[in-house]
Amino acid sequence: MTTTTSTPLRETARALVGAGRGILAADESVGTMSKRLQGAGVEPTQENRRAYRELLVTTERLADGVSGVIFCDETLRQSLADGRTFPRGLADLGMMAGIKVDTGTTPLAGADGETLTEGLDGLAGRVAEYVGLGARFAKWRAVLSIGDGRPSSWALLANAHALALYARVCQDAGLVPVVEPEILSEGAHTVHETAAATGRTLATLARTLADAGVDPAGMVLKPNMVTAGASAGRQCTPEEVARATVDTLRATMPTDLAGVAFLSGGQSSETAAANLAAIRRLDTPWPTTFSFGRALVSPALGAWRGDTGAVADGQAALAGEVRRNVPVLSG
Ligand code: 5MM
């Protein structure tokens, strides 16, 4: 399999993870975003989903800590109040627009209770359109879990195949793939079990990406941190999480990967930031940063609650969470 290496692609990938900046995951699908708005007492209309994303991206000096923002299809096609499309507005503000290109999960035949992430049909055509709309990178999330024999080898293989094919299609079109093999934290498993499952997942993924000729220097990996299960009796210290996470990544991923941007996976904002800070204190061959969704935006949504008079409060909450995760801004 031939590898396509392009300097602009690698530069974009480096810019996404460089200088301590990270990625804001604001790509909740219409269904998920609507539920989150309802949870905050906001009517889940198309306009409110737009207004909420505008609040996020127009936060003053967001670009000091955020290199790129991931959107779903709906937001990528929407505009800011001043008429600029989200990708145009983001570029003017010094950030890159990303697009979630998977279409969600479906039960995986032959793997009881496990899922396959879909979205490969027509992907090349959609990606070409997204490039035209101003996207610079693209995300695909595989969802795996631990317990009762999961993740099965079959689920790992099927999802790695989809991730590798998506990543290759994106690189061929000039979009940086942000490759997300998420192992959910739900369960009472130990950190050692998470390390083993994450190691198997990443080893399968790395082999499949190489088979597909995906250029590691032109992609970003978006993994879970290696933690104990959310309902485990004993939770790890940030130092334990950092050691387990970095050891697992070092054992499986190529050293020329552009960077690693972690998901927050339902951790509190404080825990996710403390774990990321500990990871960053360890020596790694690639830059490490965040691609958090909930850990960055939950306080902002709670502060805004759909009130036009509270936009500044929502933005202040987001700015605070970004500062917590960007070493050069904190303090
Ligand atoms: C923001 O949520 C993303 C998409 O969710 P759905 O498609 O399920 O609505 C999600 O992929 C997100 O980018 C990652 O899971 C990371 O988010 P967290 O909140 O775990 O950091």
Walk me through the structure:
This protein has helices spanning 7-17, 30-39, 46-57, 73-76, 86-92, 123-133, 153-173, 191-211, 238-252, 269-280, 294-304, 311-325, and strands at residues 22-25, 66-71, 96-100, 104-107, 115-118, 135-144, 176-183, 220-221, 259-262, 288-290. The protein is an alpha/beta fold and 331 residues long. It has a single domain, classed as TIM Barrel (Alpha-Beta Barrel), CATH 3.20.20.70. Strands 1-2-3-6-7-8-9-10 form an 8-stranded parallel β-sheet. Helix 10 (269-280) links the parallel strand 9 and strand 10. Helix 6 crosses helix 7 (153-173), helix 7 crosses helix 8 and helix 10 (269-280) runs antiparallel to helix 11 (294-304). The relative contact order is 0.15. The structure holds 2-O-methyl-1,6-di-O-phosphono-D-mannitol. 2-O-methyl-1,6-di-O-phosphono-D-mannitol (5MM) is lined by residues 25, 27-29, 32, 141, 182, 263-265, 292-295.
Poorly predicted parts? none
CATH class: Alpha Beta
How would you state the average pLDDT, rounded? 97
CATH superfamily: Aldolase class I
Judged by helices, strands and strand pairing, the structural class is alpha/beta
In percent, how much strand structure appears in the residues? 15-25%
Radius of gyration: 19 Å
CATH fold label? TIM Barrel
Helical residues, percent: 40-55%
CATH architecture annotation name:
Alpha-Beta Barrel
- Label the overall shape: globular
Structure summary, number of beta strands: 10
Could you give a short account of the major beta sheet?
8 strands, parallel
**Head-to-tail CA distance between termini:** 48 Å
